[in-house]
Amino acid sequence: MLILTTFGADEYVDEAVQAGVSGFLLTDTPPEELLRAPRQVAEGKAARDPAVTGRGLDRLAGQVGAPHGGGTAGTGRAHGT
Known about the structure:
Blueprint: E1 2-5, H1 10-18, E2 23-26, H2 31-42, E3 47-48, H3 50-64
């Protein structure tokens, strides 16, 4: 599925990605990208607006850098194994 919209708010993008959308483009996307996007999605590739993708990656980077309670969870080292 490919969405073309004027709404690039993070919550819309997040909901679309969670729903399984492969393409999310804003209406100010250059024409050549608008023409290429349906083919990319049909081939199973992602087609996302760079500005939207960049904000999403920034949010993810903030989550990855957040502390998770000691850093040894899941390694077996916290319990001497």
